[in-house]
Design brief:
By secondary structure, this protein is of the alpha/beta class. It contains 8 helices and 8 strands; from the N terminus they run ααββααβαββααββαβ. The strands form 3 sheets. Strands 3-4-5 form a 3-stranded mixed β-sheet.
Length: 200
């Protein structure tokens, strides 16, 4: 699977001129953790996250002990004042394994997906967890649908166990097995594919 296969699209974006409160309301209403920040052409400029929005936003409680009285500048009013830039992003053709690696290495909960410079989607940890949650019956149905696009219905035996697909075929054609494996691997939620020749 590639980033474009698992991303959420169309993506909700904001601009540097978007008020912080508007961005916060969007995150709260949609259940997102971050929003890509784009210019008028849709090019990625940065990302605004939950922590960007809340940083320095709340006043100290007068009951809280203070070691020193430091004058703090007022927090920014627009997304451009608080966003993280440059943003870490991934391309549409990056393998999901690479997407997960970037998330782990960078400690990110979501990643914008770009085609060139233009933002086309976003991948979150929730998107990836949702794929893992797809049950075997649903995966088997989707694999059969993919295989039916290039071969006779029912030609392939499809068995799915805990996200691992086993394909069986009475024909002994290495090229067909390769195509079938690639198609099955492209189904969101499939973890691995075995393709075997059915004998007898």
């Amino acid at each position: 699977m590639l980033a474009r296969d698992v991303m959420t699209a169309p993506v909700v974006t904001v601009t540097p001129e978007t008020p912080v409160r508007t961005a916060a309301a969007t995150l709260a209403a949609r259940g997102f953790t971050a929003l890509p920040v784009v210019n008028d052409e849709g090019w990625l400029l940065g990302v605004v996250t939950e922590i960007d929005l809340v940083r320095d936003r709340f006043p100290r409680d007068i009951r809280s002990p203070r070691l020193e009285d430091v004058s703090e500048p007022p927090p920014g009013a627009t997304v451009g004042d608080v966003m993280t830039a440059p943003a870490v992003a991934v391309g549409v053709t990056l393998d999901v394994v690479g997407v997960v690696r970037v998330m782990l290495d960078e400690g990110l909960r979501s990643l914008p997906v770009v085609d060139g410079e233009r933002v086309v989607g976003i991948v979150s940890r929730r998107d990836l967890v949702r794929l893992l949650a797809r049950d075997d019956a649903m995966l088997a149905r989707d694999v059969r649908d993919r295989l039916a696009m290039v071969s006779a219905p029912g030609r392939w035996g499809v068995h799915v166990d805990d996200g691992v697909v086993t394909l069986t075929d009475p024909s002994d054609d290495e090229n067909d097995r390769h195509v079938a494996t690639v198609l099955a691997e492209s189904v969101p939620g499939v973890l691995r594919v075995r393709c075997v020749h059915e004998t007898g």
